[in-house]
């Protein structure tokens, strides 16, 4: 049976490069892949491009809230074959869309490879990641390292002033910079996390 995979990591760990490489490997063997990327923060409405920091890129379809991904993949499959589905920025998937992708694996027998961030800059799960962590068949961590050499699992956001943002929307559009850190250094930058902080935040 095909499986639903979730490759998760923090920022700048090379998830997108891995996605593009894996898709390329399928295509090199004459198999067809279907790529998706979140359209939530894009101005162009039609098509998307998945591009990695090291210069690889590929065309992708956009997904947005309310889209039925099962229907789109099923339709595509009827007009030509799909051997594997890849989803970048999978943290932005809705719960229902994660279930749709699970059905693609279970009922269409097409493997689905999702790549995304586990947590936001406040250390909270993204909704799509929460659903994927709950129901994906295979979880794979993509590793990167903190400035201290430990595994980086968290991310801080630096605002335009170069300072660490402690509050604000889950996703900032603009010139913010993200830095991946280990948990210890993340907590030192963000300040100690208490129970109130974990339930009190309502912004975004
Ligand atoms: Zn560190």
> Could you tell me the strand content as a percent range?
15-25%
Indicate the percent of residues in helices: 25-40%
CATH topological fold name of the domain at 4-143 = Rossmann fold
Q: In CATH, what is the class of the domain at 4-143?
A: Alpha Beta
Structural class: alpha/beta
CATH H-tier superfamily of the domain at 4-143:
P-loop containing nucleotide triphosphate hydrolases
- Terminal CA distance reads 39 Å
Taking Cα atoms only, what radius of gyration do you get, to the nearest Å? 17 Å
Shape: elongated
CATH architecture field of the domain at 4-143: 3-Layer(aba) Sandwich
What spatial order of strands do you see in the largest sheet? Answer: 3-4-2-5-6-1-7
Average predicted local confidence, pLDDT? 91
Instruction: Determine the number of helices (DSSP H or I, runs of at least 4 residues).
Output: 6
Bound ligands, named by name, code or SMILES? zinc ion
Order of helices and strands: EHEEEHEHEHEEEHH
Report low-confidence residues grouped into runs of 5 or more.
Answer: 200-204
Largest sheet: 7 strands, mixed
- Strand tally is 9
């Amino acid at each position: 049976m095909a499986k639903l995979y979730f490759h998760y990591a923090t920022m700048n760990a090379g998830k997108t490069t891995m996605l593009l490489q894996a898709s390329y490997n399928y295509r090199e063997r004459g198999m067809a892949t279907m790529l998706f990327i979140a359209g939530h923060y894009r101005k162009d409405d039609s098509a998307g491009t998945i591009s990695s920091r090291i210069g690889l890129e590929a065309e992708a379809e956009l997904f947005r809230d309310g889209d039925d991904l099962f229907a789109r993949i099923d339709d595509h499959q009827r007009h030509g074959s799909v051997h594997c589905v890849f989803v970048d920025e999978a943290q932005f998937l809705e719960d229902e869309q994660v279930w749709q992708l699970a059905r693609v694996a279970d009922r269409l027998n097409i493997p689905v490879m999702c790549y995304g961030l586990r947590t936001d800059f406040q250390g909270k799960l993204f909704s799509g990641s929460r659903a994927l962590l709950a129901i994906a068949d295979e979880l794979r961590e993509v590793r990167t390292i903190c400035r201290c050499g430990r595994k980086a699992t968290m991310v801080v956001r630096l605002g335009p002033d170069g300072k660490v943002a402690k509050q604000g929307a889950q996703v900032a559009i603009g010139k913010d910079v993200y830095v991946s850190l280990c948990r210890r250094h993340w907590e030192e930058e963000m300040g100690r996390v208490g129970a109130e902080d974990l339930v009190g935040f309502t912004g975004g």
